[in-house]
Specification:
CATH superfamily: FAD/NAD(P)-binding domain
Radius of gyration: 22 Å
Shape: globular
Strand content: 25-35%
Structural class: alpha+beta
CATH architecture: 3-Layer(bba) Sandwich
Largest sheet: 9 strands, mixed
CATH class: Alpha Beta
Number of strands: 20
Oligomer: single chain
Length: 418
């Protein structure tokens, strides 16, 4: 791959993918003395909301701290609804588990935000990043990785970007992962998630509900304006049938499944369906390259862990690179964000968290999808025991809040560079 100097951009880090994960990483790296190029495939008229749709994200407590440390939270806070209680139950069975923010000593277990608001806040922060160059709409047509740098050919325009580190943040079907020749293991859950917003007779008022049924899990999350975001997972064929129902019939079926804990379900917004699968990259790093977010591990949405795990990828990578810059200055050497040492520190740090969260979400799908005789009774007893057992809820709360294991500085609300 060759190009004239006029056609080539040189940078420290090339981020491929300008969705929530890639743009969050660009925000984090903006705190450091680095030249960054961000490539986004979609049209970005005002560079505010590429790759964002009408869906909703549940931010863990640690994720809110990361966004606050990046300077994004002041813009996002008015559009975020706090989650102060999580109620977990199984339809038709006794027993329930409850996690309360006050019992965990935090103001909120997490926050629910619409992806459009998240995208807007991230991109407004990026507009203040002096060493960021955005190429959009554009894609990586070719990628070559060498010992000292990686080179990517960007289309349209046949430009070449030469970077010391390439980060694939381009989703579960990552083109970067494919170009690197990294395999991915996929588990198809044969389910689809129906995603839509509703209003209910009784407001959620900071409460989130996760309810397991024989057909799949259903979650109600509080949104601003007295609305609720609903994620309803169903077997693929059943999801297509439900999606095609007239609004009144769909509302009646939803009401029958969820019950009347929130009174009558009123208005239902646009319904969308998304296929569900766990896609796990068999490697996180290659020479001069690494994968984050869904490019590294895509999860089932059952416990709303996917984006929160990805933000910890972002926080960890930014911290490892910041430490490399500090160490390089101390020894009088040019810091290298794509060195093998940096990549290995990142890989080793992320391994435990990725494995723990992947097993946790996959285990929930398996447990509550089980239909053998007696399994439901066991799950009900388990929920009761979980609700009463000292320490059990705190352990789960730490995990769902993003506080399990070694926590990066940004996730503790600290800046990368003091």
């Amino acid at each position: 791959m060759s190009a004239s100097l006029a056609e080539r951009l040189d940078c420290d880090v090339l981020i491929v993918g300008g969705g929530a994960v890639g743009s969050a990483l660009a925000c984090a790296l903006a705190e450091l003395p680095l030249d960054v190029v961000l490539v986004e495939a979609r049209e970005t008229a005002k560079l505010e909301q590429p790759s964002f749709d009408g869906r909703t994200t549940a931010l863990a407590n640690a994720s809110q701290r990361i966004l606050a440390a990046l300077g994004v939270w002041p813009e996002l806070a008015p559009r975020a609804e706090p989650i102060r209680t999580v109620h977990v139950s199984e339809r038709g069975r006794f027993g329930a588990a409850r996690i309360r923010a006050e019992e965990e000593g935090v103001e909120a277990l997490g926050y629910t935000v619409e992806n459009a608001a998240l995208g807007k806040a991230l991109w407004e922060r990026l507009e203040r990043a002096p060493r960021l160059r955005v190429l959009a709409p554009a894609t990586v047509a070719e990628l070559e990785v060498g010992r000292d740098a990686a080179e990517a050919r960007i289309e349209p325009g046949a430009r070449t970007v030469r970077a010391r580190l390439v980060v694939g943040a381009d989703g579960a079907r990552s083109s970067v992962r494919a170009a690197l020749g990294v395999a991915a293991a996929e588990h198809d859950y044969a389910q689809r998630a129906l995603i839509f917003n509703v209003t209910t007779e009784a407001p959620l008022a900071g409460r989130a509900f996760e309810r397991f049924t024989k057909r799949g899990a259903i979650a109600f999350l509080p949104l601003t304006g007295g609305r609720a975001a609903v994620i309803w997972t169903l077997p693929s064929d059943d999801a297509e049938r439900a999606l095609a129902l007239p609004p009144d019939e769909f509302r009646a079926e939803l009401q029958a499944v969820f019950g009347f804990r929130l009174g009558r379900i009123a208005r239902i917004g646009e319904r969308r369906a998304h296929a569900l699968a766990r896609v796990a990259s068999e490697e996180l790093t290659r020479e001069r390259a690494l994968l984050i977010g869904d490019a590294a591990l895509r999860l089932h949405p059952i416990a709303a862990q996917g984006f929160n795990l990805a933000l910890r990828d972002v926080a960890t990578l930014a911290e490892v690179i910041a430490d490399e810059i500090g160490a390089g200055r101390a020894r009088g050497a040019d810091p290298d964000p794509g060195s093998r040492e940096v990549l290995e520190r990142y890989r080793a740090w992320r391994a435990a968290d990725r494995g723990r969260v992947s097993a946790f979400t996959h285990g929930l799908v398996s447990l509550f999808g089980e239909s053998v005789p007696g399994a439901g009774v066991g799950r009900g007893l388990g929920l009761v025991a979980f609700d009463l057992l000292p320490g059990a809820k705190a352990l789960l709360a730490r995990q769902t809040m993003g506080r399990g294991g070694r926590v990066p500085r940004l996730a503790r609300g600290l800046r990368l560079v003091e």
